[in-house]
Amino acid sequence: MTFRKLFLLGLVWVLSSTPAVLAQSTTGSIQGVVTDEQKALIPGANVSVRHLETNATRTTNSDEGGRFRVINLPVGTYEVTVDQPGFTKYVRSGIILALNQNAVVEATLKVAGITEAVTVVEANASPLNVNNAEIGVMFDPKRISELPLATDRDVFSIALSAPGVSQLGSGQAVFASGPDSGKDSYSVNGMRVRSNNFMVDGQDSNDPSVTGRQQPINNPDIVQEIRLITNQFAAEYGRAAGSVMNVITKSGTNTFHGSAFEFHNDNALNARSNLDKKARDTSPWRIENQFGGTGGGPIIKDRTFFFASFQRWTDRRLGSGSTINGVPTEQGRQILQQAAGSRPQVAGLLKFLPAAQTPLVGRFANFTLGGQTYSVPLGAFTGSATRQDNNNQWSTRIDQQLNQRHTLSGRYLFTDDTDAGGGQVTPPRLTTLVPARQQAANVWLTSALSNRSVNELRAAYQRLATTTTAQDTSSQEIPSIEISDLGLTGFNAGTSRTGIGLAVNLPQYRFNNTYQLQDNFSYIVGRHSLKVGADLRQIRVKSFFVPTTRGRLAYSTLQRFVDDVADLAATINRPLPGGESIVYYDWTDAYFFGQDEWKVLDNFTLSYGLRYEAPGNSIASLVALNKRVVQAAGGDQRYAFTPVPKRDTNNFQPRFGFNWNPRTRTDGLIGRFTGGNKFVLRGGYSRTNDYGFININLNIASAFPFIASLALPVTPQPGGGLGANNAYTSLATVQPSGDPLMITRTVVGGDFRSPSADQYSLEVQRELTANLVLRVAYVGTKGTSLFQTLDGNPRLPFSLTQRLDPTRGIIRLRANAASSIYHSLQISGDKRLSNAFSAGIHYTWSAFIDTASEIFNPSSGEVAVSQDSFNRNADRGRSSYDRPHRLTGNFVYELPFLRNQQGAFAHLLGGWQVNSSFTFQSGAPFTVLNGSEHEYRGTAEGRWKLAVFGVTLIGRPCR
User: Fold this and answer.
1) Helical pair 330-340 and 344-352, crossing angle rounded to 10 deg
2) What is the dihedral angle through the alpha carbons of 937, 938, 944, 947, rounded to the nearest 10 degrees?
3) Bridge partners (DSSP) listed for residue 948
């Protein structure tokens, strides 16, 4: 179905359905009831809600039950005025409306006296959630801008201080898009690190390739609020099953305001890492600066507002790389040059591997050539490289009050970054050059069609362009070469790789373009707040990702390398005739929802809805490409791409929740427990689905039947074992041979679809003070049909060669085969900003169990494929992301002296703050495969021993 047809279908559906507020809401609402002093309901009262910073005003009337609700209000500070003939006007100001908050205002009107006095109440609305079952954390502007978020001030890292969030551990793979430190990759309430949905002003901001956020924001001064929803999403939210992070940018107001900042970091302010300590006596050189500012205000008072920002970020540093123990010394290089320097593989080694810096006493590598044996002295080599990063970020936003009922807004974010010198440091000449540019534009029209209905139309566009290549292109002259005897290992790019020649997965690049159209309508009738919406997205990706195009050669010993006998790997990849190295993906996602908040009683609300998601079939983009391959092969169906999954059209997501505010008496035991109306019990169930990221597609497109993965034939060797002769010289000319069905391929299951998650929660909230809330909750998640890599043609039990289907070779199958279960107790205390103090503290006690934690290897010590393909449940155990205990907290406190800052002296000494954030969590699970120097030995008792780092563990094999 074309994007145009989907758009027309969605538009017709929206316009013909019962109503709703914005999907991926960027607003809040104010509701309440109007009564007189005897608590009699007052219908027909005039209610006016005014945004104090822009003077934008919305009006409505109380219904027959005295109730009113004003929806789709931008976050900010409000004043509510209630007026009714015969009564004194009621004014309540200072209501700070947060994202997704339904602020409750109970207006009691007094009978008018002779003077018609006006009652003014300066009080914020209660922080209790008395409307739905949503579980999440809101971060106010004070904490966003003032907290020490991270060394790079990445606003998305604030999620790590929320309950139910598990941070990656050391050595765990960073899958989602984000910095190498992994702080943007986190698991939420029992789902994977890829299961998070990122939005900026309601706009999709997700990387379709590997998931994670696509648009970086390293300037917290442009952010008004952040809302992280971790469970019980309303039907308006979806796309991911773990969490929803919605970032709202600041807008201009009737007063000019701005900020300027400078953040500096250098080697004197940093401690040495373990690698640094081994390489040098002082901290490595580093100079980092982040500077910029923001500004906003009126263009036309009460009508047109602007907000803009700019940030320049530069980082210059000297980084230490891994240490290789086994590099030939200068004397050893001379021996190699004299004995075998004319051999091309040896010449390549001498060109790209410098001499050892420190000899290792008694360490030699021997080889025999021409009947003579040579001993090559070895030593240690630790690399270092200068890394330079230049980053520019800027943004603009315009808000136009067309009239009292219509507001037009637009926002543009831009990031340009060039990172040079990252990646592999040891040996030298292998560092990377990574230019990247992100852009995000968003335009939305909010229309209050009546006192009870609002429509929002939104159009958005985002783009990512990124390339990863070598700084020194000469590194591409040779294949990726590994020599275990010399400590040269690894073939994929990374700081831990020590092989020579550019890594096999480089160079690569991709360009993502996402076009998004949303239309949403809301309507309030009686005790019902109805919502429906549609969200259509077209994603186009141009990708170059063909690993091993220069080849990979792996030798176990120096002898094998000199003889050019690759005994571990001798492979190269090439596009098949008719195929392409550049692949284009084009698909359209369609999301629809309908929901209702039904206030059954004044203190009891039911929220329920249904969301439907029809994600596009991005894998279908490969069909046309494969047809050309089959045609070039003379129609040979052994080259056909199969199976091809159909579009996933079965993602119906019911949502149900309740919210009960008992409103008991304030005396007695129950009164002390509930505080009268300061207690809420809420809970619910929701079904959500995860997204099929196209990194899976790249695995398919970079294997047969699109790419020929060619391996040199191996033969028995005189010294024993098998090996590929003349590997270095023959690799470039190897040709396909044999049965195509025996070639290793990567496929997805014929029923490949979006994984699902069932979420459960039961929570109590207690307002302790006007600005402090305590929350105790049970949160659980059941993951089903999660992505997992399977051996699609496994070897038969007790056989080293025979496979289940002897007519087929190795099949890497990406399938919906894994499952998970998560249970947790979560205790939180949140204090919103008051008296110059804002804070949050959260404790999570949980258990996270799954059969597979990721579709790829979660860490260096874990293997994604099941140990036993015929009994996959045997892998069920603690998830890689299981953190049984986690305590996080943060606070911002402005010191009490000279807060008013009147005069130059007070400006200098006043306004100082004490800010902090902290995290304590259990360590990540590990397996017996973690570490190095593994030694397996059988014993007479049939038990096993494993020696790791000199420690012997004795026990039966784990199941």
Assistant:
1) 160
2) -10
3) 951
The whole-chain average pLDDT of the chain stands at 87
Parallel, antiparallel or unpaired: strands 76-83 and 90-97 = antiparallel
pTM (2 d.p.):
0.87
Of 689, 526, 675, the residue nearest 600 (C-alpha): 526
Record the tokens describing residue 2, joined without a space: 């074309």
* Burial of residue 65 (number of CB atoms within 10 Å: 0-12, 13-18, 19+): middle
Identify which of 340, 338, 351 has the alpha carbon closest to the alpha carbon of residue 558.
340
709: nearest Cα among 805, 812, 632, 622: 812
As given in the structure block, the two tokens for residue 195 are 């299961």
pLDDT tens-place string over residues 842-874: 999 999 999 999 998 888 778 888 888 899 998
Task: Determine which helix (DSSP H) or strand (DSSP E) holds 881, and give its type and residue range.
Answer: none
Nearest to 793 by CA among 773, 813, 820: 813
Give yes or no for a contact between 794 and 803, defined as CB atoms under 8 angstroms apart: yes
Q: Would you call 753 helix, strand, or coil by DSSP? A: coil
CA 544 to chain CA centroid, nearest Å: 22
Q: What is the SS3 assignment for 453-492? A: EEEEEEEEEEEEEEEEEECCHHHHHCCEEEEHHHCECCCC
CB 255 within 8 A of CB 44: no
- Give per-residue pLDDT as tens, 365-389: 999 999 999 999 999 998 888 999 9
Question: Are 621 and 696 a contacting pair, CB within 8 Å?
Answer: no
Number of CB atoms found within 10 A of residue 347's CB: 16
Quick check: 822 and 780 in contact, CB under 8 A? yes
**Contact 245/226 with Cβ under 8 angstroms?**
yes
Question: 698 with 209: CB under 8 angstroms?
Answer: yes
Task: Reduce the DSSP state of residue 826 to 3 states and report it.
Answer: strand
Q: Per the structure block, which two tokens stand in for 322?
A: 């891994």
Are 934 and 924 contacting, i.e. CB atoms less than 8 angstroms apart? no
Closest CA to 520 of 461, 442, 462, 459: 459
* Cα distances (Å, whole numbers) of residue 255 to 49, 305, 944: 20, 10, 73
Distance (Å, whole) CA 848 – CA 858: 15
Question: For 438-474, what is each residue's pLDDT tens digit?
Answer: 999 999 999 999 888 999 999 999 999 999 999 999 9
- In whole angstroms, what is the distance from residue 494 CA to residue 507 CA? 13
Q: In this model, does residue 932 exceed pLDDT 80?
A: no
Adjacent-strand bridge partners of 594:
532, 610
Q: Is the dihedral of CA 31, 34, 38, 41 positive or negative?
A: negative
